[in-house]
Amino acid sequence: MAEKLAARDLHTLQDLWFQLPRQYEDRTRLTPIGDLRPGVAAQIEGRVLAVERGFRGRPVLRVAITDDSASTLVVRFFHFRAAQVAQFEVGALLRCYGTPRPGQHGLEIVHPSYQVLGTAGGDALGDALDPVYPTVEGIGPVTLRRLIGLALDRLPDSETLELLADAGDLPPLREALLTVHRPPRDADVTALLAGTHPAQRRLALEELLAHHLSLRRQRIAQQAHRAPELLDQSLATTMRSQLPYRLTGAQQRVFAEICTDLARSSPMLRLVQGDVGSGKTVVAALAALVAVASGRQVALMAPTELLAEQHLANFREWLAPLDVPLVWLAGKVTGKARQQALADVASGAARVVVGTHAVMQESVVFNDLALAIIDEQHRFGVHQRLALRDKGDKGATGGANAGMVPHQLVMTATPIPRTLAMSAYADLDVSSIDELPPGRTPVQTVVLASERRPELVERIRAACAQGRQAYWVCTLIDEPDEDAKPGAVMKIEAQAAQTTFETLVAGLPELQVGLVHGRMKAAEKQATMADFKAGRIDLLVATTVIEVGVDVPNASLMIIENAERLGLAQLHQLRGRVGRGSEASSCVLMYRSPLSMLARQRLETMRATNDGFLIAEKDLELRGPGELLGTRQTGLAEFRLADLVRDADLLPQVHELAERLLRDSPEVAERIVLRWIGTAVRYAGA
Ligand code: ADP
Ligand code: MG
Predict the structure, then answer these.
(1) Which parts of the chain register pLDDT below 50?
(2) Ligand 2 is a single-atom ion; what residues have CB below 5 A from it?
(3) Ligand 2 midpoint to CA 276 (Å)
(4) I need a labelling partner for 358 at 20 to 30 A (CA). Which of 96, 153, 332, 632 fits?
(5) Where in the chain are all domains bearing CATH 2.40.50.140?
(6) CATH class held by domain 444-609
(7) For the segment 642-671, what is each residue's pLDDT rounded down to a tens digit?
(8) Quick one: pLDDT at residue 638?
(9) Nearest CA to ligand 1 atom 17
(10) Using CA of residue 104, residue 105, residue 107, residue 110, what is the dihedral sign?
(11) CATH top-level class for 234-433?
(12) Which atom of ligand 1 sits closest to the CA of residue 433?
């Protein structure tokens, strides 16, 4: 068990004290089925009305349940045993907990946790909120809860635990920890569920502080390193003269900022943010050429293979005329090809390396890496950035780079409001490409109910008949169950895309229809994308794998299915795939009723504006507490409990505390960082 815990960086009692609940389940009350709202987790109790076993690509078990509110709810299982089926007799009384989603026939819950009650009913409800902990592979939730409970029984007294002299009027740490782990019966349930309870705020304060300190210290440490001075802009100038367009003012300014950084002997740490389609890639390529012309190596990394491949294609086009040798490195590059690639990177024969996170693996040794470019940074964590940093001086012994770290350029299409950027990226300088290339026509966005799907098929037919191309994006319809394997989401998505693909092929026989999803082989994906780019495919059915980076200017129509399921940032990214050419483009957001209030507002925002910054602000405003519990979408650092949006008002206090600690008691600062971030992130001096 210790090994399993260690795999999650849980080594000490303290690690368990700070293993905070990800959320709570409220089993203290029952919600009438008629009052269920999509997306809001609830506990219901009702009698089985009907049971149906079916097969839709895989076995499904559907159980209809009704209660006194005379409404029905469907609970659906994809994995089930015969013994389970036998439990669901018509008339049996069930108590279920889960998150309802709009289904085919009203609301449904997929894979609820449930219990079969005695026929009389009236079983006791829970008397306090149940904490839900982040899963630890190989340890069940009950055992994990018990372990954390045992650790809490050994919580030291307040003086020993407390590291902050002044947390304002928030409760002391010891009390806060106990409240959050073991919510008392009389605790404010609404506040706890929303993450706004004073106990949670106390912890959030310290966690934000820990992250801020860690970033500040990284920056200080980073600045103490030496980096190669990269001065030669000749290749970049040549490339610019060969581009079919002029750089926008914003691109020129940002490139100049980068050149100033590169010329210094301390490492650049710069974030370039720019809306989708603002032309970040070409700026990255120009920066790469400054390093290459100065005789050094460059690594470019993207979070997905598809995106990395797009960069590869672009870079090939730009670098080939300049005779700059390029190498491709992704997880799927294996055997001889991999050996060769690694050898070329190590010998320095390869000047630019493009790939996925495979580039960061230990086995990759650079000859003289001087610039690391990371695209769509929010998919990578701070530690990955650090791993790359360390690649700089692992070069050939005595090489030109000995003792140096590479410059780092990070690109993101997720605009971040300034205050947040200061906290999330306290270790980076920020440049903004705040201007789109000329001649773009804004994307027209319409919102349509899914019943009108047949019209869309006609619309695609018409658009493609005029030589235009279209995307059809399939999103996840079913929530995968809680403990689903990581690949499960991709699998369900892939299945949905497959089905849609088949329907569209049948409905549009005169068109070439292609399919890409995350479960396809890299070569297949690549071939399909190449066909689409070359116009050999008219309609591309895709999952959200195309969310970032894909660039096919002739595609001018995008249809997004179940758009109500996606967050604003993701919708904006997806929509950014069209509107890249001079043709007027449109985006159709299809939704299934009933729409939640938030989903309606998101879709309306998308319809009303194309401006990434406005959308980002609206996104922050809209994220009600319910949505905030999921940090996956924020794209910012991963916190245990804190939320940069919800807890934004704590930031001034965080900055002040950080200032004071770094000045007066750096050893306390260090303990705070260790406590929250542990050894997972190496910082100052490490
Ligand atoms: P981003 O990565 O910022 O979303 P890309 O780098 O993919 O954007 O660029 C989007 C498209 O705009 C590409 O087709 C690119 O060739 C084109 N582009 C970039 N800069 C300019 C420019 N200054 N003028 C015209 N087109 C440009
Ligand atoms: Mg891009």
Answers:
(1) 394-398, 478-483, 624-636, 681-686
(2) 549
(3) 7
(4) 632
(5) 29-118
(6) alpha beta
(7) 887 788 889 889 989 999 999 999 999 999
(8) 67
(9) 279
(10) negative
(11) alpha beta
(12) 3
